[in-house]
Amino acid sequence: MKLYYSPASCAMSAHIALEEAGIAHHLEKVDLKTKVTETGLDYYRIHTQGSVPFLILPDGEGLSEAAVILQYIAEQNPATGLLPPAGSRARLRVQEWLNYIATELHKAHVPLFKAEYPDAAKALARAALTRAYDHVAAQLGTRPYLVGDQFTVADAYLFTVLNWHAFIDLDLALWPTLAAYHARIKARPAVQAVMQKEGLQTRAA
Ligand SMILES: N[C@@H](CCC(=O)N[C@@H](CS)C(=O)NCC(=O)O)C(=O)O
Question: Which CATH code is given to the segment(s) 83-188?
Answer without folding.
Answer: 1.20.1050.10
